[in-house]
């Protein structure tokens, strides 16, 4: 039941010939009988148009395909008795006792950090500020923690498979990381430190009002709850398929450890645990690359093999926005994506705010991005190294693995099975990335909920002593909620990729609200609110429809010429012949080019659309409000109560109201003369006409 590639080519040629003859016969028949509106498409692999089921030509074509496949199966080439079938190996590499010891050791140390900072450190986490910000932490652990916050297990497993199956164009994603540094240290973080914020969404409240602050906080809560669930589930599934480690056990271990040390130890425990996990991750990456230089090929051999198989691509200048990865989409779209993560994501802002000064925050952010670039480049190189190892026997085509994300775990477990503890160190590194992502998310979610939703949104007064207790319960609650979402997401299949896309969409809208407040003087509360909601609805609609109608990007060619096992080509051809063909109806809004945009543009679209709509709606509302003021005065500009200068200038307007008389002044008071009343928080000096 096995055959050579020559036989496959002959079979495919016969199938193509049979299809062409059938199509020609149908065409001649149609010319004689007149056009048949039910036959709009060629019949492929036995598929029939709607309403033509059971037609004679369908039956004949289906029988022809069946006979061809049967004839192919009868051309049996005796398989070597020494070779086993690739898809059913007699021996599967699994976790050894040494591997479990290393993995459990990493988890126990992470738990110990939470126990120390939660129960034994004197004066630790007794107030909300201490629990959420860590009270002036040192720069080195914060830098490591920032680095691990942006390295998820999805990327550690997905980046190598991207290099393996699609090529190196995505490597340019490190360029926008560098471009974000001046934007972060010159624009965003000086504002945060000057205002002494705990939550970055406090800025939205100061600039626009309570409604926009709550909107930003709610968007972040939704984004991070789903993202943490996917960030844990996706690598757990990949590891379980490749290593035999049970998915539910992996998920439970990650959440139990994360929820414990983030809810008990607070920001200090999160940062210190992240530092330890960053060391584990670095050791695992360097170890795999070092061993790969000996077992898979030297760097020169790796790049030579990649070049020979057309894996090296850095300058795809295709201007079409529908191309998945180009220089433009990766660099420009990546810039907006990384800006949203570094500058308007509470998980990163909160860690920078835990430092003593803006100068230290700038240094930590710069070194964190350098470390992130180093990790990404190592990860990309690992993908090319794995391709060199499997250049002549692709494990996906051979049936060794069933998904692209299983590639790296399969390579490590099978290639280094004879070296004790390598698999354990690798899986510990993957777990470390998941732990860092989830712990940072839980701590930041508790900060956003306490500061933005409870205190500001619901006007619940929380004392500093009780603040830490509230934050701990919030962290625990979000951990349980995210854990529950894992098992919901698990049964929804394609929602994994959709959730990751929505993460970029929501992050783009949030970034747009911040840019609107910083860059647009005319923006007001209603413009930001309605512009943000409208942009969110539009980009989510585009993203969801795009995921539904998207076609999977075809992989670059792979080979199975020199496999050390028998590849069951019969099953491969059989699957090709029986695979259903999706008939795409002509017309319809789902065929519009906007739904074929590369996912790399989503963050940019969300940001720019929010800024534009927010600015436009603000101008419209401002114009309407000014006309209403003229109508209220009754006599227009001739009314002495209304100064003509107000309507000629863009100066901000304040109203002073008494019981009978309303006066208007164009003089903007000095912010230093305004005192904050107790319990009111920051005063919004950017008040506009629409706020009255």
UniProtKB/TrEMBL annotation:
GO terms for molecular function: symporter activity. This is Sodium-coupled monocarboxylate transporter 1. It comes from the Eukaryota. The keyword Ribonucleoprotein does not apply. Belongs to the sodium:solute symporter (SSF) (TC 2.A.21) family. It is a multi-pass membrane protein. Residues 1-23 form the signal peptide.
């Amino acid at each position: 039941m096995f055959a050579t590639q020559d036989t496959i080519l002959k079979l495919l040629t016969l199938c193509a010939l049979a299809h062409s003859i059938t199509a020609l016969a149908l065409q001649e028949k149609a010319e004689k009988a007149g056009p048949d509106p039910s036959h709009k498409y060629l019949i492929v692999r036995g598929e029939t148009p709607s309403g033509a089921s059971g037609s004679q030509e369908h039956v004949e074509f289906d029988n022809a395909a069946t006979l061809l496949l049967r004839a192919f199966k009868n051309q049996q080439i005796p398989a070597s008795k020494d070779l086993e079938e690739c898809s059913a190996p007699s021996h599967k590499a699994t976790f050894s006792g040494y591997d479990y010891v290393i993995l459990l050791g990493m988890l126990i140390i992470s738990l110990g950090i939470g126990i120390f900072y939660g129960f034994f450190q004197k004066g630790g986490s007794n107030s909300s500020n201490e629990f959420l910000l860590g009270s002036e932490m040192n720069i080195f652990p914060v830098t490591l923690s920032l680095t691990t916050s942006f390295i998820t297990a999805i990327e550690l497993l997905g980046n190598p498979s991207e290099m393996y199956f699609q090529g190196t164009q995505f490597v340019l994603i490190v360029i926008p990381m560098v471009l974000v540094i001046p934007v972060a240290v010159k624009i965003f973080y000086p504002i945060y430190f000057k205002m002494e914020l705990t939550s970055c969404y406090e800025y939205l409240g100061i600039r626009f009002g309570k409604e926009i602050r709550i909107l930003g906080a709610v968007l972040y809560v939704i984004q991070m709850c789903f993202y943490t669930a996917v960030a844990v589930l996706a690598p757990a599934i990949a590891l379980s398929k490749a290593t035999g480690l049970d998915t539910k056990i992996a998920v439970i271990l990650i959440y139990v450890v994360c929820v414990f040390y983030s809810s008990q130890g607070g920001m200090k425990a999160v940062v210190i645990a992240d530092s330890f996990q960053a060391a584990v991750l670095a050791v695992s990456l360097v170890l795999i690359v070092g061993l790969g230089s000996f077992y898979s090929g030297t760097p020169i051999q790796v790049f030579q093999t990649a070049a020979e198989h057309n894996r090296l691509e850095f300058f795809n200048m295709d201007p079409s926005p529908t191309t998945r990865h180009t220089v433009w989409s990766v660099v420009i779209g990546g810039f907006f994506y990384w800006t949203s993560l570094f500058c308007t994501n509470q998980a990163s802002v909160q860690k920078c705010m835990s430092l003593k000064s803006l100068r230290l925050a700038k240094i930590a952010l710069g070194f964190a991005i350098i470390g992130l670039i180093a990790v990404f480049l190592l990860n990309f190189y690992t993908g090319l190294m794995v391709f060199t190892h499997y250049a002549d026997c692709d494990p996906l085509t051979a049936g060794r693995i069933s998904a692209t994300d299983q590639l790296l775990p399969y390579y490590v477990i099978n290639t280094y099975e004879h070296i004790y503890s390598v698999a354990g160190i690798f899986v510990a590194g993957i777990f470390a990335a998941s732990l860092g992502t989830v712990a940072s998310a839980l701590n930041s979610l508790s900060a956003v909920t306490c500061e933005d939703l409870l205190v500001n949104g619901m006007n619940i007064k929380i004392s500093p002593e009780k603040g830490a207790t509230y934050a701990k319960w919030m962290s625990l609650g979000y951990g349980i909620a995210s854990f529950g979402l894992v098992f919901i997401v698990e049964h929804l299949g394609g929602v994994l990729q959709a959730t990751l896309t929505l993460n970029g969409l929501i992050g783009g809208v949030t970034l747009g609200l911040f840019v609107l407040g910083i860059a647009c003087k005319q923006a007001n509360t209603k413009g930001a609110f309605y512009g943000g909601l409208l942009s969110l609805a539009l980009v989510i609609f585009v993203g969801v429809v795009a995921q539904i109608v998207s076609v999977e990007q075809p992989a670059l060619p792979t080979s199975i010429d020199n496999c050390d096992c028998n590849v069951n080509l019969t099953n491969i051809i059989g699957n090709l012949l029986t695979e259903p063909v999706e008939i795409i109806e002509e017309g319809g809004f789902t065929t519009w080019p906007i739904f074929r945009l590369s996912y790399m543009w989503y963050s940019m679209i969300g940001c720019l659309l929010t800024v534009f709509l927010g600015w436009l709606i603000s101008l419209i509302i401002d114009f309407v409000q000014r006309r209403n003021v003229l109508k209220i005065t009754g006599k227009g500009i001739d009314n002495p109560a209304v100064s003509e200068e107000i309507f000629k200038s863009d100066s901000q307007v304040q109203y002073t109201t008494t019981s009978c008389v309303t006066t208007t002044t164009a003089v903007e008071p000095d912010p230093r003369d305004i005192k904050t009343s107790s319990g009111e928080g920051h005063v919004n000096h950017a008040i506009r006409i629409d706020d009255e």
